[in-house]
Design a protein that fits this description.
By secondary structure, the protein is of the alpha/beta class. The chain is built from five helices and nine strands; from the N terminus they run ββαβαβαββαβαββ. The strands form two sheets. A seven-stranded mixed sheet has the order 5-4-3-6-7-9-8, with helices on both faces. The chain has a two-stranded antiparallel sheet with strand order 1-2.
């Protein structure tokens, strides 16, 4: 059983993994993936990520970033929709990273997907696109620090590149957009709204 402090943004969850396979639709293909307790959305694909995957155009080639990857739905979809790209699946949760590796291997795209902690991403890598369902509940300061670290590493250019983030309307999507523009100086637009979520698009 998980402890009170065992959150999905914990590096090494104390809860039992309780690994299991679930069926999900990724990039238009029904497939089985492995999930576990102690990570974000342990039961499968959450609503916000589904909105992101349905609404964002296929990513360009190059280095792509899935920020806060969990068990890997975004990274796996990026890899399937951009076969020539290199996908960096980044998370602080080591159990989540292990699941991404296992799922990428299961789908035959292990060479394309690099599941790593933030400090394991080479400093000289810039990203043609960033997709994220950011961990809003980690707290505003930690969230802002994360966005300050990664959004400036976007390569210049508009859609389909840039940063695409899905945020619940009632969890501060509009205020996040204003903060990114004011603090980071990066143009940020509301790309679409669906099912109680906004998809934000950040460009350089």
């Amino acid at each position: 059983m998980a402890t009170v402090s065992d959150h999905y943004f914990t590096a090494e969850p104390a809860s039992d993994a309780e690994r299991r396979l679930v069926a999900v639709d990724l990039a238009g293909v029904s497939t089985q993936v492995e999930v576990a307790a102690g990570i974000f959305s342990p039961g499968g694909l959450d609503k916000g990520t589904r909105v992101l995957l349905d609404e964002v155009p296929a990513p360009p080639a190059g280095d792509l970033l899935d920020l806060g990857c969990g068990w890997g739905p975004i990274a796996l979809t990026m890899a399937r929709r951009a076969p020539g790209a290199t996908v960096w699946a980044v998370d602080v949760n080591l159990r989540a990273l292990d699941l991404v590796r296992r799922n990428a291997d299961r789908l035959g795209i292990a060479r394309q997907v690099h599941a790593v902690t933030p400090d394991e991403v080479p400093d000289d890598v810039t990203f043609a696109a960033l997709w994220s369902n950011p961990p809003i509940r980690v707290g505003k300061q930690a969230l802002h620090d994360m966005l300050r670290r990664w959004l400036p590493r976007l390569a210049p250019g508009g859609a389909p590149g840039g940063g695409w983030m899905v945020v619940q309307k009632n969890l501060g999507s509009d205020s996040m957009a204003r903060w990114i523009q004011a603090d980071l100086g990066l143009p940020t637009q509301r790309a679409t709204s669906s099912k109680g979520f906004r998809v934000l698009h950040v460009t350089r």
